[in-house]
Amino acid sequence: MKLSRSILFTLLASVFSVANATPPEMRCQTDSYNNKTCQDNQGNNWFGRTDSSGNETWRNNKGDTLTGVRDSFGNITYRDNSGKIRGQEDSFGNKSWSGKNGKVIKGRTDSFGSTGYRDSSGNTIRCYKDSFGTETCN
Fold first, then answer.
1. b or e along 64-94 (b: 16 or more beta carbons within 10 Å of the residue's beta carbon)?
2. How many domains does the chain have?
3. What is the tens place of the pLDDT at every residue in 49-108?
């Protein structure tokens, strides 16, 4: 199961920023070439693409990058510019992310395609896609 790109972008905002009490809201759009563009309510823009092997590359307007490499079992590991592991997803849809501040965010996708995340402080992020295909996390 692939990690929804909107979820990824919301988590990227958490990974590359100082943790806030309120998670950033994120809206994403996909163009006809399958490029993804997302913006959070803090003005961060993220651009991403998934290749034919399921590997993912993301960058933001501040120069941060995140690369996700999928193994033969369907697990994916995300690394930042320095090579540090920032996130992992297993083939069962369990996800775990760690931010620069050391905060860990864990989540799981339900049968409706919505994903819920919770950090160690009890803050939550919920992601869903509406009938127009717009993905929102807040």
1. bebbbebeeeeebebebeeeeebbbbeeeee
2. 1
3. 988 888 989 898 888 899 999 999 989 999 988 998 888 888 887 888 887 677 778 888
CB neighbourhood size of 25 (10 A): 15
Element (H, E) at 16: none
Q: Are 123 and 116 in contact (CB under 8 A)?
A: no
44 phi and psi angles, rounded to 5 deg: -80, 135
The predicted pLDDT at position 8 comes to 57
List the domain range (segments joined by +) for residue 86: 5-137
The model carries a pTM of 0.66
- DSSP β-bridge partners for residue 57: 49, 67
How does DSSP assign 74-103, residue by residue?
Answer: S-EEEEETTS-EEEEE-TTSEEEEE-TT--
Among the listed residues 131, 92, 138, the one whose alpha carbon sits nearest the alpha carbon of residue 117: 138
Q: CA 53, 58, 63 angle in degrees (round to 5)?
A: 145
